[in-house]
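Hi everyone, sorry if this is the wrong subforum. Our group has a chain we'd like a structural model of before ordering constructs, and none of us has done structure prediction before. Sequence below.
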Amino acid sequence: MSEGLRPEGSAGSRRAFVTLVTNADFALGARALVRSLRLSGTRADLVVLHTGGVNEADLAPLRTLGARLVETDLLPTSASFNTAHARAALHGAAPFTKGEKPAFHTPLDNFAKLRLWQLTEYDRVVFLDADTLVLRSIDRLFDYPEFCAAPNVYEGLGDFHRMNSGVFTARPDAATFDAMLARLDAPGAFWRRTDQTFLQEWFPDWHGLPVTYNTLQYVWLNLPELWSWEQVKVLHFQYEKPWQEHAKTRSLRVLIDLWRAYAGDGPVPDLADLPGPV
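Answer:
Right subforum, don't worry. Here is the predicted structure as tokens:
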């Protein structure tokens, strides 16, 4: 068993989809994600890394859906690292001006997703943020190399130079995790967009996935010409979350209603029947 991880049960496959849950809100999101993966027909394990900030009542629905729960500690980072990456300090140094970060968002928690490199019972994993939905099978990603991710496209062509870490492919390896941790918490290290900035530096030659594997909800608002229900494979609710009321609720109503269908227990709509952005 890898230090810092406490899994339930054993692996049933050598491949796994992995997400991270650090609070009740992301547990709610993860339930919709896990159900969407089940409906995609995958036979890979569905692994939920969860920290001590999640109550058993919030985890129970994930277990009911057949997810394998793995309790994880946050990374053993230094006091200076934690101070620099606390919410107020990080957002003060690198403010978000394009969207609204929810109150439950804690930047330090993001780094815990690096723990997936400790899941060495799996040969290949695909990570998905808990605020994503899988709309059609993406099992082919297991055959992609490490490290693949889609660009962080939501506003314009300038977004293509930066990756988004909400969906990526990885190969668990204990030595890789140890090396990552040493680089992450090097003296004076500051990761402007937390794990996303770190992973782009760690994998400077990252393989670019089509944006359809990580379609950010702001594409619906800002780049409607890129939107195609025939092609979107993973929908990512970056910034504002579909289970909250927020200033963009009305303009994102089609996407929010789709998420609510997956979050429930009933049928989900046929994508071909959904309208496109106006």
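For your construct planning: The chain has nine helices and eleven strands. The mean pLDDT is 94.
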